[in-house]
Amino acid sequence: METQSKAVTTSNLDIIVESNPSESRLQELGIKSWPKWGCPPGKYTFRYEAQQTCYLLKGKVKAYPKGSGADEDDDILCVEFGQGDIVTFPKGLCCTWDVTVSVDKYYYFHSSSSSSS
Question: What share of the chain in percent tops pLDDT 70?
Fold first, then answer.
């Protein structure tokens, strides 16, 4: 199965969505060792103080980056993702999640240090 990626640029900040990642890609990232988090449907505002990568086990989200000119009535600049997607949010991004299907995800905050693990 081929992985598809798409990115939305907002004020020099990219939200990257990888759809249908292979099992080897999930293993490469060590996703099953990451902490889990979930939320019910609703609207949530997040500011990413560090880069975050997450893998959605379930859910459906439209993210509206601040500063993009997008709001909940403007789907042009929103980023949609859901079950089975790997999503990377850059450090410094602020966005509102409009969650239409409860989210259950693995997540990982990247360290700002340059050391490799």
Answer: 75
